[in-house]
Amino acid sequence: MARVIEITDFSAPELDVYARLTENQLLCRADPANAMFVAESPLVIGRALDGGCAPVSFLMERRHVEGKGKELLSRCGDVPVYAAEPEVLTRLTGFRLTRGMLCAMRRPALPDARAVCAGARRVAVLENIMNPTNIGAIFRSAAALGMDGVLLTCAGSDPLYRRAARVSMGTVFQVPWTYLPEGEDWQELLHGLGFRTAAMALREDAMHLSDPRLAAEERLAVVLGTEGDGLARDTVARCDYTVRIPMSHGVDSLNVAAASAVAFYQLGRPE
Fold first, then answer.
1. What is the C-alpha to C-alpha distance for residues 188 and 251, in angstroms, rounded to an integer?
2. What is the pTM of this model?
3. Angle at CA 131, nearest 5°, toward 87 and 47?
4. Mean pLDDT per segment of 10 residues, for the chain of length 271 residues?
């Protein structure tokens, strides 16, 4: 049975996770065992629970305790539930809660990159993608369009940032993912696991996205680069394929999240 606690003191330390700690502070790199993240909305929280994430506490509109939050709370034992009217929650957090609900959760241990790739035929590699909205949209496309896993470089944004997880519609808890090991040649790692790599890049000599050689690859990694600059030159040079999405009407490129959806749809179906 959840313990419902009326918010009376905005300075209470147990509310720091929602009101005063940044997402980087929650990440707590120095103490991974106590690292947390905040999930927003019933859908995202439910998928996080389905993915095995352990809840620490809830923050929600009072009406949701017996409403849309009731089923979620029934899965969480006696975790504390901090409740108040919407106006109070907005004053506390500085923003209006999406669907009126937040949940602080322990960060799950990430798998090894080799474990993510085990049995996978299609994976996405995200090189230094910084925008959490783009990260979330890419994960949603990866889940919907045939990617078996996502690998990220350590310089990129965190898929468990509140905005990223919300934009992903909780698919960050459904698609296996991890960070590529720092200091290790990830191209060599993927080649050693039997993957061919396809760099998404705007080059005149790039092959068309619909080239049948790509679909015929048994194991393929689709490599996407950071907003603005795209992939590093060395990354493109070392990939097995360079692939472009044909443009028209003078448009020079797509946003990386849009490009990922097009690429995953075309390449996420090995023949």
1. 34
2. 0.93
3. 60
4. 85 90 85 89 96 95 92 95 88 78 94 96 97 97 96 95 96 97 93 97 88 95 91 95 88 89 88 52
